[in-house]
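Weekly structure sync, notes
Attendees: PL (lead), two postdocs, one rotation student
Agenda item 3: pending single-chain targets
PL asked that the sequence for the first pending target be pasted directly into the notes so everyone works from the same version. It is reproduced below exactly as submitted, 245 residues in total.
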Amino acid sequence: MSHHIVEFKDVHFRYPDGTEALRGVNFRITHGESVGIVGANGAGKSTLLMHINGCLLPTAGTVTIGDFALTAKTRREVRKKVGVVFQNPDDQLFMPTVFDDVAFGPLNLGMDDAAVRERVDQALALVNGRQLKDKPPHHLSAGQKSSIAIAAVMAMGPDILAMDEPAASLDPRSRRLLIALLNTFNHSKIVASHDLDLILDVCQRCIVIGGGTVVADGPAREILTNAALLEANNLELPLTLQGRS
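Predicted structure, written out during the meeting:
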């Protein structure tokens, strides 16, 4: 299924201040893969994620999403395929009520009112958030905002789901619900996180980013039990594995 493919070929990106955030990134993700992106602060994880739906365009190299090479002209089509949950939910929630925020995407897809209401109800049910639908987003807790941001993306029915630190503001129960939700998403998903235990729980593959490039790519359990590799990239073993021989 080519519409689920994410491919980076020799991707470079330089910010206007001269910071080179990506330096020749190469990888290919195919239908149904669940991929964790890990790395220290400043390694390039968030910059990489922002290329997946065209928030940023590469300085050099090519990003292919489904059937489209990412450009300023194809960005709109790419965003129909990719749902991105940003680290700060305030970057995504801007409507008067939770219902309006979750309905925003389906309405922009041209769905009728009945279909939009059904999508919103289903998406809020996924994150246990139906009781919040009439609340203003700015009255929600940090964890509730994160859940609603996830619902707003899921309401779009994306082929590819990308998330930046999705569990950062969640309490333990909400985190468990998130893991269960991610494990039900059968399409391609990409999760960038410092929470290596979450990556271990939801991803079969793991890519380590260091200095703006891919330094390791392989089965998640192999990558995340390699103490020397993790230490070399300013990471530590997942908490559930620490202390084991």
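Discussion points:
- The beta strands are 6-14, 20-29, 34-38, 60-65, 68-69, 82-85, 160-164, 188-192, 205-210, 213-219.
- DSSP finds nine helices and ten strands in the chain.
Action: rotation student to compare against the earlier draft before next sync.
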